Amino acid sequence: MPLTTSFLQPLLAATAAESVNLAEAGPLILAAVLLSLVVIYFASKVGGEICARINFPPVLGELVGGVVVGISVLHLLVFSEGGPTEPSVLTTFIQQTAGMDGTVASVVANTASEVISVLSEIGVMILLFEIGLESDLEGLLKVGPQAAVVAVVGVVAPFVAGTFGLVTLFHVDLVPAIFAGAALTATSIGITAKVLAEIQRLTSPEGQIIIGAAVLDDILGIIVLAVVASLAKTGTVEISNVIYLIISSVVFLVGSVVVGRLLSPFFLGMVDRLTTRGNLLIPSLIFAFVLGYVAVILQLEAILGAFTAGLVLGETEKRRELEEQILPIADMLVPVFFVCVGARTDISVLNPLEPANRAGLIIASFLVLVAIVGKVVTGATVFGQPRINRWAIGIGMVPRGEVGLIFAAVGSASGVLSKALDAGIIVMVIVTTFVAPPLLRLVFKPETEALPTSDVAVESPPEG
Amino acid sequence: MPLTTSFLQPLLAATAAESVNLAEAGPLILAAVLLSLVVIYFASKVGGEICARINFPPVLGELVGGVVVGISVLHLLVFSEGGPTEPSVLTTFIQQTAGMDGTVASVVANTASEVISVLSEIGVMILLFEIGLESDLEGLLKVGPQAAVVAVVGVVAPFVAGTFGLVTLFHVDLVPAIFAGAALTATSIGITAKVLAEIQRLTSPEGQIIIGAAVLDDILGIIVLAVVASLAKTGTVEISNVIYLIISSVVFLVGSVVVGRLLSPFFLGMVDRLTTRGNLLIPSLIFAFVLGYVAVILQLEAILGAFTAGLVLGETEKRRELEEQILPIADMLVPVFFVCVGARTDISVLNPLEPANRAGLIIASFLVLVAIVGKVVTGATVFGQPRINRWAIGIGMVPRGEVGLIFAAVGSASGVLSKALDAGIIVMVIVTTFVAPPLLRLVFKPETEALPTSDVAVESPPEG
């Protein structure tokens, strides 16, 4: 195509592929998705099983498995994220086995990677729905004040310490310092909740405070991100947008729980009258997906909607039955999320032999320190609970996970961050994400053996 | 964008959307997928429940529900299928609620519809995997000769009668007549299998013959499609391609069953050693998806791979456990397939008030007649089974479903079909697909009440 500029080529390939009829193009996209899922499942199982054997949380293994198959090592699973990328090893493989030409292959690969992205997002929604089902709304409300303090301190402490330290110690300009400080405020509810479920501490008082605080942090994170993104873009903060986000998140959370509880007798009555397969599952998924949609439209996150739906349905008598049905669905979709988080993480910034990384690594050490200390201190703020495991709460707030990656992506896109600072943020996200699961398991360890909890999510026991 | 031609606009919008960072574009695609799933689930439950109440097969309701939300009526769920389309009602709704501009909205909608397409294809794979699990390999092999005769007669009879009738009665040219005749040969394994499972006759002798014949028909259909597509394109038949397809499908089916049975002790041993969640499900899905991928690469269909994987795993001691875990996953994904088949079907060609449709409807009446009679006669060919329900077998082969739609799509794309013939094929697909489920239920009815089968798939019983 000599008449078109190079950036148009994949797009023209898209028309070419679209004009190919359904019977020809569809199967190739499906084939690419199937192969990606095989790679994801393989990575999640190998990583998870190795971690389980050395007494680490399986979810850590899924993340590491994702890193191995992703952008950092094997390039089997690569997401374009907007920029032009090298074709992944998987694309090349599909292209050769299916005998496609290069442009069609790249369209197929891009579409397949979009599908995998959405599957991973549905996966984390299913995870949060499951966590919501297993959480206890009364218990969450009871620890609400403590969770709120933990959440707020966990945002303010690392933000202030990070921004101040970058400006005074590293002479970073104020706007990028604020941005980096903001990236320190995130908490990955997915990773913490998964670890808590794995060690069966989700419904412990510590678990409930962590989940409550992580949910609030998710909202605070969205607000902080909106503020700093507008600061980075325009140099000013749109107060009206901040107020909108605060009001909409409060209205959404309170509203969906209240309305959900009001409607749940109607819901149960309807479920009982349905006679076809999926009579409980499908209405529940409709509820979760509607709330997820509303959350996205309000510029919140879909996982908040899924979590709230789970919370409301967890209050009903159908809870156990629904938990059983969600289990295999979660087993199928949740690993997609964790492997994708790992696959998206570029660990090449961790290589100290690369001279360009060194400035970033020095800043990173500082950010990691602030990130961990700034969240661990939140454990000390829990009041009125003398026997609570404060270390567990503090450490439960540490992983930045996928939320941190979003901050890093927005930071890269905005252009306010220097290369060193950008790398430093990514390193901070990696270290906090990978260090928290084993630490969390460690601080919960003594109690786990002494005190079996009663009302917790039970892992599907492997048979035989 | 005044400088670009209009067909490039959605593509340029694609770059615009892709350059938007992950945190902004990703959620909108997710939101569109979530809303589409809500529409799909709603349609499937409303349709399915109504059909269950008037004693029709629920799957018919899912198809009709799909028609209602699809291209024919409400335009909520529209697939682009290569050509430029009107924005769906859903796209407009998302655009307004999320405040996107039109071009971004169309990119988001296209991506979401690709995701839904892939989900529906994974849905039918899960259905065939479930059917394979519940089928009995020994039983299938035992009725193999009968199934082979049914399959071959069910391809030859409607093909010869259809082609001959079109040439002699309607004076259609030979190539388009052969194409339309070929479209008559398809059998929708998905729809028949689903109805058989719903009435719990999947493992009856009739059910096994139908499934065996439908699987063989799927392969014959692929070969026939390859032949007529090449005939339509080049006017000649590539014998080498036909031989390749025959050999590859035989090698694939026999090979995957033989290799699968050889490897299954190793598979079970590995499953028993896994300790993390999904220890049985994930390796099983890897198996099904790998076989699905191989099938696509061999130019066969992914559902054949999934079916074979289910068949092999159904022979192992893990069958029951796996069936239980697949059930909710099937409940979640299978309706996506049936609703999408309905949504893709344009029933406007059925409107006799539209003068342009009349020629098509006359041809269609002939095609429907041949389509039904040509398959029903196959019941008479079953030998060595004196007490078999021959009507049930014949009717079980009638629905063309998604396979017929693919023939119609390839026919449209090839350009050899006249508008009337094209419409006639679509009407034939619609009528056979929608008529077969209630008929199948009817002919099985007397026995269902008299003779409860023992070893069949049990519907998840609605509680309360």
Automatic annotation (TrEMBL), chains A, B:
It is a multi-pass membrane protein. GO terms for molecular function: antiporter activity. The keyword Transmembrane helix applies. One of its GO terms (cellular component) is membrane. GO terms for biological process: proton transmembrane transport; sodium ion transport. It is found in: Membrane. InterPro entries: Cation/H_exchanger_TM, Na+/solute_symporter_sf. The chain crosses the membrane at residues 29-47, 59-79, 147-170, 177-197, 209-231, 243-264, 284-314, 326-347, 359-384, 391-411, 423-444. Keywords: Antiport, Ion transport, Membrane, Sodium, Sodium transport, Transmembrane, Transmembrane helix, Transport. Residues 46-442 form the Cation/H+ exchanger transmembrane domain. Signal peptide: none annotated. Belongs to the monovalent cation:proton antiporter 2 (CPA2) transporter (TC 2.A.37) family. This is Cation:proton antiporter.
